[in-house]
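Entry:
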Amino acid sequence: MVGQSLSLALNQVRWLAALLVVVSHIRPLMFVEYGKSDVHHAGWALFYALTGLGRESVVVFFVVSGFLVGGLAMDRYRATGRFSLTDYMVARVSRIHTVLVPALVLGLVLDLLGNRLWADGGLYGQATAAYGITSIPDQVMQQADLPTFLINLFMLHGFVGTTLGSNGPLWSLAYEWWYYILMGLALAAASKRGAARWFAVCGMLAAGAAMPLDMWWAMPQWGVGVALAWALRSLSYRPAWWWAAGSWVAALGASRYLLARGGVDAWPAWGLTAKDMLIACTTGLFLWSCHGRRLTAVRLFGARLHARMADFSYSVYLTHFPMMVFAVSAWTALVQPAIRMQPSVISLACFVAVCLLCLIWGYLCSRVFERHTPSVRRFLQSALSVRRPTAPPVAEPVRMANMESMEPQRRRA
């Protein structure tokens, strides 16, 4: 179902969105707001706009995740008529927790060490009150304990408790986890008979009833990815690439402009949801337009580079935030007392240095932990004696082994 062109586009979207997540978190920590800056010209205006696309990147991640997890699982079921909930959950647990467990531990260590060394910087105790930075919890160390660790380990921080320590972006991982659960139960209900079907239906109802309203608001964005998988299999129509790409860029630009003028808090919940759904739909439209086409614009810089960049985007998402808080706190304590700087060549160089540090940290974590995902999956399959389906599997896209989950930054960053 997924050809080389679409696979390449997915890789590009993944790592570019991950990069936008990182810079959208770091820029508000290191630069004054654009309206309070001493420099106003087109170059810096574009810099502030591009480094403010964090919320939009989360929506893109939801669409990609819905396609690669829910959509491809549905497509396999339609092709084979079979679905194993155990096999599905083994794949999800190995994919998510192979990186999540060490990310939680490393993030907690960085928070404890940073609070001990750089507490005077304020980021570990009063980020919102002192600096107006809502993406960092007000009392980081009150959330850095064993109960919160376990809540995050079992993906319950969308229901009870909070994200662990400073790692606020983990909120979106919990959202996706429960979307995975609902999708798996829905496919199990469709494929099973008798008591097993009713068990799956009751599980869906229980999980759906327990999910907070915010999770339901974002679920249609994930569903766009599932709908994209259905469209690729069922429809021969493909939208024109130039029109789809233009619509996507226009939606992203309009979203950034509107949020920059009024801020997230000025929008009602329904307005934010409608805006995010527009981004989700145009993202799906763009990916749909890439299917089955040989596009020079999509093939920019080559497939291998984009695949390698995308391979560690999940680790970057899970690990960058505690490292960012640690690094900026150290910078504030040792070099620059004022946490936010005016736009300049020096401040831009410092910003790039922190970005590179977070990306390198994510890459190292991917090499140490994420690359063992297939081994963890095989171990779980062996431990649970998972029987592989006898029907021939649906062909996998090129370089898709590590492309099944995305996770984004804090929604209100």
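The mean pLDDT is 86.
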